[in-house]
């Protein structure tokens, strides 16, 4: 696919979600950075694949009503700025905070924010479990390709307000992983909700968004110190 065709594909993606011309232009700039910047922390350099795997897969979260109306959204383990930057472009009324532990990746995200003219995005260089300033601050937390679902639950819960929503990107459904996540959720104040089958682009298979709601306050002992969520997942954690 030529560059022109790929850019047209990106514009059709913006039209799919009724984002308007300014957003379409910003998505085009972001697409160019992701595939052309040698320091972009992604292995995908084909423009059409980048539209699908980066932009479309990020913007599919707009199918979640809670995302559409969020005032404050936090993207955990933002990596190359996905899904946080496409969502910030699509939702200019939402304050989007991208949390990333790698300084190199944060530098790229900050360059992308400036190049795309995104005025509603902030970048935090920190591990999600080592950022007390974000506690109880967000309506929505997103996590894409970050960790197992039970670990994502522990990262997200302390950052959400009561009634807030975790949106986690997953592939093929795994009953054992979902059961482990439900056990972890019960400990940190979340409750599993619907699992939405999504098709971000033609040919995508086994894509799901897992939603969880914050139904009670997260105990103050969470988050645990950095690394513990992966080393001792809550799905096997004792309440004592």
Structure, described:
It is a single chain. With 240 residues, this protein is α/β, with parallel strands linked by helices. The chain has a single domain, classed as Vaccinia Virus protein VP39 (Rossmann fold, 3-Layer(aba) Sandwich). It has 9 helices and 7 strands. Strands 3-2-1-4-5-7-6 form a 7-stranded mixed beta sheet, sandwiched between helices. It is globular and about 50 Å long. The model has no long low-confidence stretch (mean pLDDT 93).
SSE diagram, text form:
Elements: H1 3-16, H2 21-36, H3 47-59, H4 65-68, E1 72-76, H5 84-90, E2 95-100, H6 103-116, E3 121-125, E4 138-144, H7 149-156, E5 160-170, H8 175-188, E6 190-198, E7 207-214, H9 228-231
Parallel strand pairs: 1-2, 1-4, 2-3, 4-5
Antiparallel strand pairs: 5-7, 6-7
Briefly characterize the structure.
The chain is built from 9 helices and 7 strands; from the N terminus they run H-H-H-H-E-H-E-H-E-E-H-E-H-E-E-H. By secondary structure, the protein is of the alpha/beta class. Strand 6 (190-198) and strand 7 (207-214) form a beta hairpin.
First CA to last CA: what distance? 57 Å
What's the pLDDT, averaged over the residues? 93
Looking across the biggest beta sheet, what order are the strands in? 3-2-1-4-5-7-6
Q: What's the number of structural domains?
A: 1
For this structure, the CATH topology is Rossmann fold
Shape: globular
List key phrases describing it.
240 residues, alpha/beta, Rossmann fold, 7-stranded mixed beta sheet, 7 strands, globular
